[in-house]
Design a protein that fits this description.
Layout: H1 3-8, H2 36-44, H3 58-71, E1 75-79, H4 82-91, E2 99-103, H5 108-117, E3 124-128, H6 133-139, E4 144-150, H7 162-171, E5 175-179, H8 184-187, E6 197-201, E7 215-219, H9 221-235, H10 241-252, H11 254-273, E8 278-282, H12 292-298, E9 305-310, H13 315-323, E10 329-330, E11 340-343, E12 362-366, H14 372-387
Parallel strand pairs: 2-3, 2-4, 4-5, 5-6, 10-11
Antiparallel strand pairs: 1-7, 6-7, 8-9, 9-12, 11-12
This protein binds pyridoxal-5'-phosphate (PLP).
């Protein structure tokens, strides 16, 4: 299916709603029946019945069709956050006594789930360096049921060889889950490499305007139906119709936004690489990136998020850099219209700062939709402040 067809037409039946270009927001909690037997069928199979909007909703349905098609998946579920998608995907594939192999440095709330929630139910985990597939094999135990991946991650951008990990997992009947938030399905489709479940925070590029929190989980119809009938309905964190509508709207411009951000990111990186106060730029599509060859092989693009190490000698200097910026906002998240920055020093106590630790001097930058010069001039303001 053409991406343009998926984003502009697929899943939409305009004859159902006055030929309106934009789909309606079916803001209803429940649906009425004429026949008892139809209601009975709804009770038996909520996965295919308009019954109650915690389950299916027509606006959400349009979004599900588009997102599953983008992922090259049979089906998907859309949650009220990426964190809910993560939680449901893992919960659906473990029971007491099971073990998870996860790459290290995963999204903070995935870590919380592994470290604080799942151990209460006797589900254990091992973190590995996922850059080498051998590490998955070495950490696999007889009770391992899930490999949890995030490729690239959103700070240091380490990758996993998705095809190789999926192959290994299949040999051991292990379910693979990959957080694909960095790439979106436009730049990487884990399911095509044999990954069982691909998820993303739709809060980032899919929404694209910093006004919705949502998450997507894609996989086989069998797996998605099973998750719908248990975790999805039970957690009750399905996306609401208005937010689904905002994501449909976000999807219309996703390719245009990504290609613009890709171009601007390259300009910003070229600037950073010649800036004397930058020690290093970390970005998967940079030739110096240790996994550059793998990135080029399994990703169709890379943009927006990058990290640079600034030559600061004190915590105050890292703070001065960020606080001198006039346009680039200091905030979590990314994928919206606005450029953002987070200093690594914000993740450590002030008196624990060590200039010898490059992580304390790193700046995680998100390049938004502004003009490249506008962003670069702002960064220059930060560097000028450091030069005093
Ligand atoms: C933001 C993010 C999430 C969580 O998504 P929410 O929509 O904030 O719940 C998961 N993984 C990655 C890589 C993220 O950046």
């Amino acid at each position: 299916m053409d991406i343009s067809y998926i984003l502009n037409e697929y899943g939409e039946d305009r004859d159902d709603y006055f030929r309106a270009i934009a789909p309606p927001i079916i803001q209803t909690s429940n649906f009425a029946f004429n026949k008892v037997d139809d209601l009975r069928k709804g009770f038996e199979d909520e996965y295919s019945t308009w019954l109650y909007s915690r389950g299916l909703n027509p606006t959400v349905e349009i979004l599900r069709k588009k997102l599953a098609a983008l992922d090259g998946a049979e089906d998907c579920l859309v949650f009220n956050s990426g964190a809910a998608a993560i939680f449901a995907s893992v919960l659906a594939n473990v029971k007491s006594g099971d073990h998870i192999v996860s790459v290290k440095g995963v999204y903070s709330w995935a870590k919380k789930m592994f470290e604080e929630i799942l151990p209460r139910f006797n589900v254990t985990h091992t973190y590995i360096d996922g850059t080498d597939v051998q590490n998955f094999a070495a950490a696999t135990l007889p009770n391992t049921t899930v490999y949890y991946l995030e490729s690239p991650n959103s700070w240091s951008f380490e990758l996993q060889d998705l095809k190789a990990v999926a192959q290994l997992a299949k040999q051991h009947k292990i379910i693979t889950i990959c957080d694909n938030s960095y790439c979106t399905p436009l730049y990487q489709r884990p399911i095509e490499y044999g990954i069982d479940l691909s998820l993303q925070s739709a809060t980032k590029y899919i929404g694209g305007h910093s006004d919705v929190v949502a998450g997507v989980l894609s996989g086989s119809r069998k797996m998605i139906e099973r998750i719908f009938n248990s975790e999805y309905m039970n957690i009750g964190s399905g996306i609401q119709p208005f937010n689904a509508w905002l994501l449909i709207r976000g999807l219309r411009t996703l390719p245009a936004r990504l290609s613009r951000i890709t171009q601007t990111t390259n300009e910003v990186i070229a600037y950073l690489q010649q800036q004397p106060l930058v020690e290093k730029v970390i970005f998967p599509f940079d030739e110096a990136f240790p996994q550059y060859a793998l990135a080029k092989q399994q990703m169709q693009g890379a943009c927006g998020l990058l990290t640079f190490i600034v030559k600061a000698s004190t915590v105050e200097e890292t703070e001065l850099f960020c606080e001198s910026l006039k346009h680039i906002l200091m905030a979590v998240s990314w994928g919206g219209h606005e450029s953002l920055i987070i200093p690594g020093s914000a993740a450590v106590k002030r008196d624990a700062f060590s200039a010898a630790n490059a992580n304390h001097r790193m700046m995680r930058l998100y390049v938004g939709l502004e003009e490249a010069d506008y962003i670069i001039n702002d960064l220059q303001r930060g560097f000028a402040a450091l030069q005093g």
